[in-house]
Specification:
Length: 309
């Protein structure tokens, strides 16, 4: 009688594999897949392939079958390449002048425009227009200004008594100087706007308290304005520094790296070796040299800034 009352146990319910959590996980990856595939194809693969090519010899017109592994020969060749030495030297000169001078002039202009100056909105627009204009158009304008005989700049120098004014872009001693002047002028509006944004965030109460304590304008600038612009200065320094090593368009349009390679830089050497001489392996090796230089300088800058903060 007792045995007849015992009911058989129900079989355990098997859980479905595709539960809600797993479905959300898959749907999330499906949404990320296009971005992930694009990143792999457009960013990761070119970087890895470029690193491989830097250890190879590859004539671009010979197809993929002409890739030959040669070890570190490309990097050894760079040590003996005088054009690379000249490009590296020009890059350093370009950076040493455009970064500090550009930031200094932009800071002075920003303080001037940010103060109670009549028509400061006009100055903001006037200085910012070159930054949003085509760099090729700016180069064409400056090419006319720097014309050796008919240019307004040399005409002015002749009028004030300079007998042999420089030929600027056509002179191996002044071609890089001319490009530095154009680069500083073209980017000064962008830096000025960033500085004005930083100046707007400084509370007026600090200046009012400094005025009550009898601090001069110079003391206020060095003890209030400059320290509180530290993050802005750091941002502009790093971005300008990285940008200075990537200069290409102005040089390609105005001088083509000449005369006599006097204005060539690393990026222009990459272009010449890769797309004119079709030496893609050597061009990749120069690219990694440039990457190493920019990476080390940027890392040092970040370390110094973090230590200062």
């Amino acid at each position: 009688m007792v045995q007849s009352q015992i009911q058989p146990l129900a079989a355990p319910v098997k859980k479905a594999y595709w539960n809600h959590k797993r479905k959300e996980f898959v749907v999330g990856w499906l949404f990320l897949a296009p971005e992930f595939v694009g990143l792999m194809i457009l960013s990761v693969f070119p970087i890895v392939f470029s690193l491989y090519l830097s250890f190879c010899e590859w004539n671009l017109v010979g197809g993929l079958s002409s890739i030959h592994f040669i070890g570190i020969d490309n990097f050894v060749a760079m040590l003996e390449d005088e054009k690379i030495h000249m490009a590296l030297k020009n890059n350093l000169i370009f950076t040493l002048f455009t970064v500090p001078i550009g930031i200094f002039l932009a800071l002075i202009l920003a303080v001037f425009v940010h103060s109670k100056v009549y028509g400061k909105e006009y100055f903001k627009v006037a200085f910012f227009i070159p930054y949003i204009s085509s760099i090729i158009a700016l180069g064409a304008v400056w090419s006319a200004l720097f014309h050796p005989s008919q240019g307004p700049i040399n005409q002015f120098l002749l009028r004030v008594g300079v007998e042999n004014p420089p030929k600027w872009l056509a002179d191996s001693h002044y071609s890089l100087v001319a490009i530095i002047i154009i680069a500083i002028w073209a980017a000064i509006g962008y830096k000025m706007i960033i500085f004005i944004a930083g100046l707007s965030n400084i509370p007026d109460e600090l200046y009012e308290a400094a005025n009550i304590d009898g601090a001069s304008q110079t003391q206020q600038f060095f003890n209030i304005t400059l320290p509180l612009l530290g993050p802005t200065l750091s941002f502009l320094f790093i971005t300008t520094l990285m940008g200075s090593f990537k200069v290409f368009d102005l040089i390609s349009f105005l001088t083509g790296g000449g005369p006599n390679d006097s204005s060539t830089v690393l990026v222009y050497r990459i272009y010449e070796e890769g797309f004119r001489n079709f030496r893609m392996g050597y061009a990749s090796a120069i690219s990694w040299l440039l990457f190493l230089i920019v990476g080390v300088i940027t890392m040092i800058s970040w370390k110094l800034q973090n230590k200062k903060n």
